[in-house]
Design a protein that fits this description.
- One of its GO terms (molecular function) is acyltransferase activity, transferring groups other than amino-acyl groups.
- Strand 4 and strand 5 form a beta hairpin.
- The protein contains four helices and nine strands, in the order E-H-E-H-E-E-E-H-E-H-E-E-E.
- The protein has a domain of 132 residues: Aminopeptidase (3-Layer(aba) Sandwich), CATH 3.40.630.
């Protein structure tokens, strides 16, 4: 099915996903998408029971887009159905953490209307392939990401894709920049997938 014949988000499948590099003009829509996916009770990826408030800011998104070694990809809404201009996003940053050269994956979200259709798997595979191909001069050890504690279903999702828990964790920041924790014991746990 061509994206030209899509009439609603219900017609979108993993085969329709076309990613492009985000620009600073996408920041407002990215904030909207991330807040919907993580700070409302829509979809299975939400954190609404654990964290309130904002997920990110336009300034943070623009910093991510402009940061050297960082790539943020977006999936435009091909249906023009007025719901969201962007339907998904995923980012990767080449960095060194915990003594490893990694492709750190973050800013990962799929519109709740599209969750469960394999689109997240498509995005994750695409960014892993991109990172592997663009890391030739970086001696990449693997991929990493941080996930919020108390999310066993999310941990299981990533473990099925080869990511494993490590001993590295940090308390969820309570600085108001990324929401307000609703529990005192929230941590960000570091997952790693070797090449």
């Amino acid at each position: 099915m061509s994206t030209n014949t899509l009439s609603s988000t219900a017609d979108i499948t993993k085969d329709n996903v076309r990613l492009r590099v985000a620009t600073p003009d996408d920041a407002k829509e990215l904030v909207k998408l991330l807040d919907c996916c993580y700070r409302t009770d829509a979809g299975w990826t939400n954190e609404a029971a654990l964290i309130g408030g904002i997920r990110t800011t336009e300034d943070e998104i623009i910093q991510t887009i402009n940061k050297e070694g960082s790539y943020l990809f977006v999936f435009d809404n091909p249906t023009n159905d007025g719901d969201f201009n962007l339907l998904a996003c995923i980012g990767v940053q080449f960095t060194n953490m915990h003594g490893k050269n990694i492709a750190y994956i973050g800013t990962f979200a799929v519109s709740p209307k599209l969750q469960g259709k394999g689109i997240g798997n498509t995005l994750l595979s695409a960014v892993e392939t991109f990172a592997t191909r663009h890391a030739e001069s970086r001696a990449l050890d693997g991929f990493a990401m941080s996930i919020l504690s108390h999310r066993p279903e999310l941990l299981a999702y990533y473990q099925r894709r080869g990511y494993q828990m490590t001993d590295h964790a940090m308390p969820f920041p309570d600085d108001g920049k990324n929401g307000k924790p609703k529990r005192d014991d929230l941590t960000l746990n570091w997952l790693f997938k070797g090449l």
